[in-house]
Amino acid sequence: MSSSADLPRKDRKIKPSALCELCHGRKAVMKRPKNLQKLCKECFFLVFETEIHNTITSAKLFQKGEKVAIGASGGKDSTVLASILKTLNERYEYGLELVLLSIDEGIKGYRDDSLATVKRNQQQYEMELEIVSYKELYDWLMDEIVSCAGIRSSCTYCGVLRRQALDRGAAKLGIHHVVTGHNADDMAETVLMNILRGDTARLENSCSILTQSSGSPIKRSKPFKYSYQKEIVLYAHYKKLDYFSTECTYAPEAFRGTARELLKGLGAIRPSCIMDIIYSGEHFVLAQKKKVTKSYKNGRDKKAATAEDEQEINPDGSVALKTTKRDGNTCEKCGYITSNKICKACVLLAGLEASRAKASVDGSEEGAAKLGKTLELLSF
Amino acid sequence: MSSGPVTYLPLDTDDQCQRCKEKRAVLLSRKEKFCPDCFVFFMRGKQRKLMLDERYKVKYGQVADRLGVQKVLLPLSYGASSLVLLDMVASLLQEQNLAHKGKQGFELVVVHLKEPNLSGNASDNSETDSDFASGGKKFKELALQYSPVNIEYHEVDIEGAVLTAAMKITVNNQFGVIALPSSSDEAEKRTIGDALRACATRSLQEDLLSLMKNELIRGLSLKTGCKTIIYGHSMTRLANEVISLTVKGRGLTIHESVINKSIEYNQQELQVIFPLRDILKAEVIAILLFNEALQKFLLPDAKPGSRLAKNMTVRDLTTQYFDNLDATGYASTASTVVKTAEKLAGPKEPQQGTCDVCGSSIHHQPQKWLSDITVSIAAPLTTEDEEEYARQYGTSEGSAEGKELRVCYGCTVTLAGSGKQFEWPMRATAQEIIDEFVLTDDEDEGP
């Protein structure tokens, strides 16, 4: 018996109401954001990890011996993801080979700092690390793109380019599976946004945990699909994980911002709402499209255009050749998977090249983000 | 008010109405300038378009024999939308009645559900009490405007309805919903109002109350012989409803909750129509503004309770969200949301049963889904002290045993959040309320 047990009990007596609601043996230290259950640290770790294990096994995400790349930004989500996958891989013998894959977008004052965190994580978790930069892939830094295309569309560029960069980085390592730290809050936000924007094309599959396509050898998955952002933060906090907590200095996506605000308010009055939205989102089913009879729609015009007569005009002004669109189509320029003739990244980059000449060449090596951060630090 | 969906023109404007080209325009809506009459006419057209079916027209000969006397139920809350809908529909009947020598396309039945006072503050509902205790006096005055149309009127008091079949409901750690029959004498004194007030948050109260109202309205339509229900929901309100249902985990029911369609209820076919679905809330308010006779019946929208963030309900927040979008020039979001909802269908999976609480169909196993991602296993205890605590704890609380109910996802989550030993009736109770608590029933009175 340890010496602490010999101390008079009364001095350290925990009231039953202050005990963990699961083990009833330890003092509760936190209220679980998902259901407001009072839990001790140990039980929280166990339930949080087990839920992720359940998510992984019920979706059959991994195969034994698979090599998996963790999209690591150095932020809380990907740091916790790396830590938990390592834990679960050992505990449940997934037999995975885990590799950290980072993207260097080229944002001074943001990404260079967070990459330092990833490098420390590499040591802590003893994993291989690969860094792919926009500069080497596209010959552009995000800072240059912003100075060229403006700060408002920064997320559009960055998002499209990063998605491709992750795939290319994985391909370079001969890996066919990338896991990302998208959490339940992100999923719920996306569900709300798709409804608010009327994006029916994405509505049905916005919550799928695994996305893959016949045209790309690389599949991506989100093991944190059901994990609350707040719980990820708590996990990182209690496990004392080393992560980088500054948000990207470029403008956040405006419309997502309004959905995020709404979600924040809803979460305060209904903690389960994030799960509830995902449940709704997972079960949305689109009705079969009603057939529009041509004679009714365009009765007077007997020569009404049929789908075969239509010409598709590409964003660059050329006319598309008659090919049936199907899953697995690839970009004519770079060979990346796309549903169009040319992938979005190539279209965006072509637009950028056209205006590169106009971009100021003032020799400054510091991007707008760095400037913003410096200004923030100024005090009067 | 420059960027909202309805812009009121200054009183001294020289602009003419673009429809009649005679009267002075008073507002700008949908890129057109309207005088009050033309605006109301334009909006009425939208309601009529949605009620074009033969069954709502004046019928003669074979058609009349086939369809018989059609009765239409209109739930009236005395809020802006339902008042405007009542005015539109009653005016339509008045027109039909006068033009066809007393013949009408359908009989109108109005139902008012008296909502319980949930704020716990008696003064908040004083106005409602004095106005409605008279048993529809207010409504008789309102209905006079549409003479000679006779409108059947009923009131149902939700507050006072006694929970005879009350069940204590507990949701266990595996999200099973367990019903424990409560001791009989204790239960008889409790009312729906009491049960709602015992609910943990306003947001959950609202969810349960709307389930109850929905069930009551459907039940009342059967009892009054109505084969159609028309709701006063505006487009904004429907968009709101879509988001609320999604947020409450009831996204599966969107396709049957906000779309005009016929549903089957207790083996009877019921048409559910939202005739104001093409009209924005701001436009409904404008219509009411031009109708002074109607305005005085408006029940102030002042929601009791504080506006503290944590006291808001899901609907409060989504309403606020759409109001903000309106004010910032994104009024079209409401229309986008409603149109998106119209493209949704019911689940592909076969139905496994119906929810014992709300009656919606169940196609999946929500309990399995929930317990997979909300695990409740304890980490092993390591010290003797911890084990001692657990032993003491174990004796202080017994485990729940009772009949496990079949409950949908939305109800499971709501009940789980409502607190331990929360009392809520099963769905069947709605029928008892309808049978016992129809307060006024003036269908026998002549015109």
TrEMBL record, chain A:
<dbReference type="InterPro" id="IPR032442">
    <property type="entry name" value="CTU1_C"/>
</dbReference>
<keyword id="KW-0819">tRNA processing</keyword>
<comment type="pathway">
    <text>tRNA modification; 5-methoxycarbonylmethyl-2-thiouridine-tRNA biosynthesis.</text>
</comment>
<dbReference type="InterPro" id="IPR035107">
    <property type="entry name" value="tRNA_thiolation_TtcA_Ctu1"/>
</dbReference>
<dbReference type="InterPro" id="IPR014729">
    <property type="entry name" value="Rossmann-like_a/b/a_fold"/>
</dbReference>
<feature type="binding site">
    <location>
        <position position="186"/>
    </location>
    <ligand>
        <name>ATP</name>
    </ligand>
</feature>
<keyword id="KW-0067">ATP-binding</keyword>
<feature type="domain" description="tRNA(Ile)-lysidine/2-thiocytidine synthase N-terminal">
    <location>
        <begin position="67"/>
        <end position="252"/>
    </location>
</feature>
<keyword id="KW-0547">Nucleotide-binding</keyword>
<feature type="domain" description="Cytoplasmic tRNA 2-thiolation protein 1 C-terminal">
    <location>
        <begin position="329"/>
        <end position="359"/>
    </location>
</feature>
<feature type="binding site">
    <location>
        <begin position="71"/>
        <end position="73"/>
    </location>
    <ligand>
        <name>ATP</name>
    </ligand>
</feature>
<dbReference type="InterPro" id="IPR056369">
    <property type="entry name" value="CTU1-like_ATP-bd"/>
</dbReference>
<feature type="binding site">
    <location>
        <position position="181"/>
    </location>
    <ligand>
        <name>ATP</name>
    </ligand>
</feature>
<comment type="similarity">
    <text>Belongs to the TtcA family. CTU1/NCS6/ATPBD3 subfamily.</text>
</comment>
<dbReference type="GO" id="GO:0002143">
    <property type="term" value="P:tRNA wobble position uridine thiolation"/>
</dbReference>
<keyword id="KW-0808">Transferase</keyword>
<keyword id="KW-0820">tRNA-binding</keyword>
<dbReference type="GO" id="GO:0002144">
    <property type="term" value="C:cytosolic tRNA wobble base thiouridylase complex"/>
</dbReference>
<dbReference type="GO" id="GO:0016779">
    <property type="term" value="F:nucleotidyltransferase activity"/>
</dbReference>
<dbReference type="InterPro" id="IPR020554">
    <property type="entry name" value="UPF0021_CS"/>
</dbReference>
<feature type="binding site">
    <location>
        <position position="77"/>
    </location>
    <ligand>
        <name>ATP</name>
    </ligand>
</feature>
<dbReference type="GO" id="GO:0000049">
    <property type="term" value="F:tRNA binding"/>
</dbReference>
UniProtKB/TrEMBL annotation, chain B:
<dbReference type="InterPro" id="IPR019407">
    <property type="entry name" value="CTU2"/>
</dbReference>
<comment type="function">
    <text>Plays a central role in 2-thiolation of mcm(5)S(2)U at tRNA wobble positions of tRNA(Lys), tRNA(Glu) and tRNA(Gln). May act by forming a heterodimer with NCS6 that ligates sulfur from thiocarboxylated URM1 onto the uridine of tRNAs at wobble position. Prior mcm(5) tRNA modification by the elongator complex is required for 2-thiolation. May also be involved in protein urmylation.</text>
</comment>
<dbReference type="GO" id="GO:0016783">
    <property type="term" value="F:sulfurtransferase activity"/>
</dbReference>
<protein>
    <recommendedName>
        <fullName>Cytoplasmic tRNA 2-thiolation protein 2</fullName>
    </recommendedName>
</protein>
<comment type="pathway">
    <text>tRNA modification; 5-methoxycarbonylmethyl-2-thiouridine-tRNA biosynthesis.</text>
</comment>
<dbReference type="GO" id="GO:0032447">
    <property type="term" value="P:protein urmylation"/>
</dbReference>
<keyword id="KW-0819">tRNA processing</keyword>
<dbReference type="GO" id="GO:0005829">
    <property type="term" value="C:cytosol"/>
</dbReference>
<dbReference type="GO" id="GO:0000049">
    <property type="term" value="F:tRNA binding"/>
</dbReference>
<comment type="similarity">
    <text>Belongs to the CTU2/NCS2 family.</text>
</comment>
<dbReference type="GO" id="GO:0002143">
    <property type="term" value="P:tRNA wobble position uridine thiolation"/>
</dbReference>
<dbReference type="InterPro" id="IPR014729">
    <property type="entry name" value="Rossmann-like_a/b/a_fold"/>
</dbReference>
<dbReference type="Pfam" id="PF10288">
    <property type="entry name" value="CTU2"/>
</dbReference>
<dbReference type="GO" id="GO:0016779">
    <property type="term" value="F:nucleotidyltransferase activity"/>
</dbReference>
<keyword id="KW-0963">Cytoplasm</keyword>
